[in-house]
Amino acid sequence: MMNSISRNSSSLIPKKPLDAVLIGAGARGWHTYGRWALKNKDRIKFIAVAEPREARRQGFAKEWDISKKRQFTSWKDLLNEAIGKIADACVICTQDKMHTEPALKALQLGYHVLLEKPMATTKQECIELVKQAEKVGRQLRICHVARYTTMFSTIKHAINEGLIGDIINIIHSENVAYWHFPHGYVRGNWRKATDSSPVIIAKTCHDLDLLYWLVESPTKSVQSFGELSFYRTENAPKGAPDRCLDGCPVAETCPWYAPRLYIEAEPLIRITQRSKKWRLRFAGKLLLNHRKFVKFLSIFIKPLRNFLNWQYWPATVISDDLSVEGKIQALKSGPWGRCVFHCDNDVPDHQTVNIQFKNNVTATMTMHGHSYLDGRWIRISGTKGSLLGEFTYAGEKITYYDHRYVHEKVLWENDITFGAHSDGDSGLMESFVNSLLNEGSEREDPLTSARASLESHLMGFAAEKSRLEHNVIDMDDFRD
Ligand SMILES: NC(=O)c1ccc[n+]([C@@H]2O[C@H](COP(=O)([O-])OP(=O)(O)OC[C@H]3O[C@@H](n4cnc5c(N)ncnc54)[C@H](O)[C@@H]3O)[C@@H](O)[C@H]2O)c1
What we know:
Elements: E1 18-23, H1 29-38, E2 44-50, H2 54-64, E3 71-72, H3 75-78, E4 89-92, H4 100-109, E5 112-115, H5 123-136, E6 140-142, H6 150-160, E7 167-177, H7 180-185, H8 199-202, H9 205-215, E8 219-227, H10 258-262, H11 266-270, H12 278-289, H13 291-297, H14 305-308, H15 315-318, H16 324-333, E9 350-357, E10 362-371, E11 375-382, E12 385-392, E13 395-402, E14 407-414, H17 424-437, H18 441-444, H19 450-469, E15 473-474, H20 475-479
Helix pairs in contact: 4-5, 5-19, 9-19
């Protein structure tokens, strides 16, 4: 059944781990890449951290036994001439607007850089980053984690093998769940384009990057439509206060009631009901319908407490204090406790992009924040066959349809992953670390180099220009 490709090379045995410094010990820096590194201490070691939030800085430093003199409150204190280059790699996971400056500085100091997406928030900055990386001859790898998933690398491999002939058209959808979209784009960090980046960059630069990677052609024209239709004050239920905890009259029925997401994680636990594993479905049912019983069990089975008071993403984003009291305090005063209809958000909650590539392949990409389930769907139609992909929190599947014999075959299937990235985060780290430890081919041509990532960022900026100006963007003019 399985034709998926293996993308790891963990058989490589390094002589000594790679030294790295971390800039920004937040959800991505600490909880994603940092946690992967902890399981791979023989291959990578963090020796310094820059992070202004004390709890995060100290928490990360403790895990890595980083001395006080190598703990910094800002990237500027770590990346400067006086200190110079103290490690092989610099992992930059600050917020969108704080990517270009530290990345340029790290490259100038001689670091190889792993930089979170979006690489930058303007076209000029993206180009500057590509030029600087190529000038100093250091790796600048962008965290387009989707390319490193088994799911999308299997699709890419199938296309390269000629399974569906030449690609004619792609329909791709980034379905952001009704609870996830407000977390990031209504209440959260990416709610205002001017403070972060346009949603078509912040949320879907991965999707545009996938299209470009699969089609293997630069873009000819881009057109986009999109609006902020729903998460607006005029749609608030009658009497809804500014914050969920200020006595909201519709708390019981509102899908966005904050404690239900950040304390009980109900939407995430509901996903268990889609699993093929009966044990997971059963555990989910208990948590959803018999919380008192689970509370009783948690007296004897300690890890259950992490589920009763959710200890993972997205709860880790709202506060450094993950006790129930700590979270309630965060919901009473922080951005994530606000009513989704009373926020200062301005990014569209649905947007479409039409793309024509130079090889005449056409594609449409839709992003929206009203999905029942989080995840991506893709349909790739070729001259000989079609591929359908589902890449969701509740499982993954690639189905191949042969046009001649009209039969279908499942190329790849995976059960619930509970995450939007599946094995993409670990695949990215594997690849980055291995390429630096071993002077292999990846060192010259990383899968998601700044140069490879530039096109998708240009597509995103062009799409936003099109949405705002209601016109079709000629990409050659736009590049100039
Ligand atoms: N690759 C992906 O799929 C993916 C997924 C989610 C987020 N992201 C991107 O990753 C980046 C980080 O997102 P996050 O969710 O981890 O955010 P976060 O807010 O949790 O982490 C950013 C951290 O940077 C710290 N910081 C602020 N100023 C700093 C300074 N001067 N020096 C050093 N650190 C500083 C903040 O205190 C914070 O802890 C964003 O650009 C985001 O768009 C990428």
